[in-house]
Every structure is written in structure tokens, then in C-alpha cells.
Amino acid sequence: MKKIVVALTFLLTGLAAWAQPARIPVNDLNTNTNTKPNNTTPKTENNNNTTTGSGELKKYSDPNGRFTIGYPTDWTFDNTSQGAIVKITSPSEGSSDQYKQSLNLQIEELKSAMTIEEYVKVNVDAVKDLMKGYKEVSSMYFNRNGARAYQIVYKGKYGDMAFDIQVKQLFIVASSKAYILTYISKEGERDAFETTANKIFNSFKL
After folding, report:
1. Which CATH superfamily is domain 2-203 in?
2. Which intervals carry biased composition (Low complexity) (predicted)?
3. What does the DSSP assignment read for 94-142?
4. pTM for the complete prediction?
């Protein structure tokens, strides 16, 4: 269980940088840097990437065969981060944009059998302890591509943040692995990328 909490702490710790005034948007939850341009070419050895038409998503296939996911070509794609299997970051909305919306995927090898309900409880309980003013917006269990899944949306504040964030997470437990797909945005502000983020979520398949 410790590893799960550590993973969540990593996810939320990086968000503290968003609470500080910034000259440039932050797009890296691990290093808090903004050095990758929007057209960064991802490391995609043997992944059979294919590009679709305008407005559609480019497909990324995990080289280990665990999943596929789509992403827009104008978003920054990174599969070299130490903190996440995949990170997908929105483009800047202008010079006044102090952060970029971020979507990332984490995968955990489960050492013992866990149900999706058990895994979700550990994760959500950890989030409640980490976030101030935690409030659940929506949640549901459902079947997704032959696996039991759970999706939750919640909001709150982490650390010394000056504003609340809204987090959407998809949990899937399958083949002794737990998958957590997360999208983070600023709560209460119109999210111009929410529709695109939903398309990315829907494209994710095991």
C-alpha cells in the first residue's frame, strides 16, 4: 500500500508549482521545467504510431503491449518521465497562461490480488488525507473493454496552492496491474481542453 500512496504524493507534489507566480507555464510534474516545445517528438521505438486526420488523435502503442492511447499532435507527449509511464500536456493558451493542463498514466504492479474496490479505496483515502477541502464531484464503477473500472472527479487544494484544482481519474485493475489515468485542471476556470481530455480518456485501451 505504501507504493500507492507514494505515487499519489508524487502526482500532487508537482502541482504545488502551479500555485506560484510563473513567467512561463509549467508542463512537467516531475522537474517543474518548461523546456519541451509543443512539437517534441516522443520516444516511440517499435510502437507502431499512426497519425489520423485533422482533429483526430495520434495513436501511441506501449512497446510492452500493455495499452494504447491517443493524443492530439499539438499537445506535448512524453513517455520518458520517471514519474509516469506517459504524460500528455496541453498547449499554452497565451502569454498569461500560468500553467498547462496535464494528463498522465501510472501503472503499478500488484504484488497481491486486489479488487478494483480495494484499490480505489486505498487511493481515494490517500487523496483525502493529502488535499485540503476535498470534495467529490462524481464517481462511478463500470465495465470498460472487458475490465472493471472506476472513474472519479474531485477537487480541492494541495499544500500552499493559491487555488483549487479539479482532478479526473480513471482506475482499472487487470492482469495483476493497476492503471491510473489522471487529468488535472484549475477548478472554477473554463477548461478549453476538457473535451480533448475526454477524447484522450476514451481512447485509452488495454
Report:
1. Mog1/PsbP, alpha/beta/alpha sandwich (3.40.1000.10)
2. 30-52
3. -TT--B--EEEEEEEE-SS---HHHHHHHHHHHHHHHEEEEEEEEEEEE
4. 0.75
Q: Which residue carries 482506475 as its cell?
A: 171
The three three-digit cell numbers of residue 75, written as one number: 499537445
Question: Cell numbers of 34, please?
Answer: 518548461
Distance of alpha carbon 91 from alpha carbon 202, whole angstroms = 20
Q: Is 81 helix (H, G, I), strand (E, B) or coil?
A: coil
Cα distances from 15 to residues 5, 33, 45, 101, 166, in angstroms, run 16, 12, 30, 11, 11
Burial of 177 (0-12, 13-18, 19+ CB in 10 A): middle
Write out pLDDT tens, residues 76-117.
999 987 778 999 988 876 655 556 788 999 999 998 888 999
